[in-house]
Amino acid sequence: MSEEKKGTEVSRRQILTGAGVIAAGTAASAIVGTSFVKSAEASAKYPWPYKKLNINQVGEIAYKNYFTDFCAMTVLKGLFTPLRKSVGGPYKDYPLAAVKSFHGGVAGWGTVCGTLLGAGTAIGLIAGPEHTEAMTNDMMFYYGNTTMPMYTPKKAIKVDIKHHTKADTPVCHVSVGKWMKAADVIFLSPDRAERCARVAADIAMQTARLLNDLHDGKYKPSHKPLANVLGNGITSQNNCDACHGNNIPDVPGGKK
Amino acid sequence: MSEEKKGTEVSRRQILTGAGVIAAGTAASAIVGTSFVKSAEASAKYPWPYKKLNINQVGEIAYKNYFTDFCAMTVLKGLFTPLRKSVGGPYKDYPLAAVKSFHGGVAGWGTVCGTLLGAGTAIGLIAGPEHTEAMTNDMMFYYGNTTMPMYTPKKAIKVDIKHHTKADTPVCHVSVGKWMKAADVIFLSPDRAERCARVAADIAMQTARLLNDLHDGKYKPSHKPLANVLGNGITSQNNCDACHGNNIPDVPGGKK
Hints:
256 residues, mainly alpha, homodimer
């Protein structure tokens, strides 16, 4: 990258070599620190009040509702259904179906897994301006770094699941594609639906764990917010060569 | 792809050749039709009441607040600030900062552009179960197919913008990367921030246009929901070879 790039507040080379750490840190603070708090809406109802969740109950609700609600909505339902009873208030009025179209990486476009948008919506409303960015970031790492599905229902709604994969990304298309390849099934199969239902339970449960920790004053970010942006010089995953290079499999059937 | 794949309700080959159109259509209906309505939350407040928006006002608010709120929150602010005055009610209580961490493709991970998540949150709350999926899908197409930024402020907050690019994707990393390459600037530059602020205005304005059309009974989907899923046999974009193949540029500087 040219050193002569115009408009350079902190050059990518400076970030990569560490020379711009202080300036980059300032930029990060502008996003997650002072600026975030400053621009947060002043509202007596924000962040929303919270009572600790039963992790297993959250998982069960998220799992069983996946088949009608899909990934984003069912995660939010897993988290909010108990809160509607224990807290009431704003949870009662929030229409869970509002996030339904975030399914399948937003309306089936395969971008970020919808479970993370259901989780992110809950975190955004509950965790408040000081913790939302870090907790959402932790969930993005968790999704990619965790072999899923882990959740095992007492009785499978569709079929049993024998394959478990690590996505190495929060991207729906890649996460689902890797699992479909391992299980040798197509997208419109009961197997894939069952897998996504269980992943939804996993993500809802982990979100509940972090929110419970925050409620107990025990939440500490597992990862540094914006590490990918500062490390790679652009909004990005943390594994560039997953897409750049020759690691992307051919399209099945050669379709372009 | 093997024809012997287990759990096959509709095989990918059937979908691609058209033999599974009826079955696939049924699957699509389960997502966007009856099932959606059935699973929607029964609430007097859903969908939220709406009054037509002034498109230019929406764009101006989204643009000028980007620099503190970032992409997702500023789009939602552009849409909701006028509705707080004209409608009040639920808009007044919704904490806009709840979606702030969706910036930069969700906490800077470069997945779906945060503007589309701000837009999707508003659409989800306003368009109701019959139209949310289609309108969100239309916005995903619009984002990738539109040369942006189009919005031109009376006076630039950071710098003037001379480059305009078509992303061919709703993905933040690719959209921003293509523009950065065209403009020859780095991510942490005033130029890139100015570009994203104007894109936020563009997306907020288009969302307002579609919501205004819906309010007038004139909204018709421009694209068929789930066309990508049914066409490609997986949640996906509509241009497979943008990622599969040799079209991905090398990482600048060779970083892996």
